[in-house]
Amino acid sequence: MGDLGELLRGTVAGERLPLARLLTAIENDAPGLRDLLPQLFAAGHGGHLVGITGPPGSGKSTLVNALTEEWRRRGRRVGIVAVDPSSPYTGGAIMGDRIRMMDHAADRDVFMRSMASRGELGGIASATWMAAAALDAAGYDPILVETVGAGQSEVEIARLAETTVVVEVPEMGDEVQAIKAGLLEVADLLVVNKGDRPGADLAARHLRAMLSTAGGRVSRKPPPIMVTTATSGEGVAALADAIEAHRAAARTPEEATARARNQVRRALADLALRRASGSASWDATLQSVATRELDPISAAERLLEKDAT
Amino acid sequence: MDDARSTPIRVLIAKPGLDGHDRGAKVLARGLRDEGFEVIYTGLRQTPEMIVDAAEQEDVDVIGMSILSGAHMALLPRVVELSQSRGMDDVLIAAGGIIPDADVAKLKAAGIAEVFGPGTSIGQIAAYFREHARKRA
Hints:
- The structure holds two protein chains of two kinds.
- By secondary structure, chain A is of the alpha/beta class.
- In chain A, 45% of the residues lie in helices and 13% in strands.
- Chain B is of the alpha/beta class.
- Helix content of chain B is 42%, strand content 18%.
- Chain B has five helices and five strands, in the order βαβαβαβαβα.
- Chain B has helices at 23-34, 48-58, 72-85, 101-109, 122-132; strands at residues 10-14, 38-41, 62-67, 92-97, 114-116.
- The longest helix of chain B has 14 residues, at 72-85.
- Chains A and B meet through helix 2, strand 3 and strand 4 of A and helix 1, strand 2 and helix 2 of B.
């Protein structure tokens, strides 16, 4: 499938097939990928990483399509990663996000990639951040990551994205839904989509009222709440403006550090698990825990130490 | 590299031309999902350009096209041509639907790997894709 360094060179030069094949290598964790990472990162252009999340059927794909149209009008090249769930039984997946992206099918300045979650929880695949880095190296800006239809706790995207847009619908429920923990909490921008339905403005007002009463230990400002109708384009330009406006806010040293902390934390956990589970004493240590000779924390310590020495 | 692949095979299912419904394509997409494939479904009324653009960005192993309208001779060889012109020679291109026997040989000569007629089971299609899709590292 071609040398990875060559794929990266093609990607940076703006060629599409090398980018597509680099994304496949990333998804498959191909041999040699680890060595390419520093170059991949260095090749980034600093494109704005925007997460789009929300429950299934709230109109994420349609909104991504409408936002893409708006950004194309503004002369931007748009990269999209759309994540759909893998079957927990067969590992298979159906990815249908392109159906709503037909308007841009022939546009060479829009690159869209569908990604199966491959068993990863949290609404995105573990390779998603690296896929976003590849689109960044290719010069797309913004880069939109559309998550699987998320429930209340798939908040992983907020750790990855600079700007997280949570898409809800007018029928989302009563005011108590808005003060529960989870998805709504991670929104940098909150969108009530399907604004042409009855109750949309009321839902937005409820959200505004409930979220503005937040206080206590969370110093976070309540997110702007916007109403869109993705199918007609109503409110989409204003949403694009709000996303643009948030770009600067997301790039303060504090925010950048917070994101870095999350990313490194995640990488550290992955690395530790990968190393420990590859260690020769993995099975024996598991057995010791199973027979209660050893507690799980001591076991973890032992596995990490073994590897370190 | 010849071992059974550990990563799912990616398949684009597309409906070229002006067919009015995509029931069969959806059933196939669902069936292939259950067989462990990652299926990218693009919907109705696709031009050959749209299909190849999507296949390129998605880096699929297989392009599967379902066509009922009778326009297969006009549309399917064009998909092969475009794919090859973009360097996607290693992508398996197959078709299904209502295609007269007389045209099957012509389509195969034009680079369509296989044509699945009515009555083909999803299991047969899955087995064919597994056997003939490119092998990846």
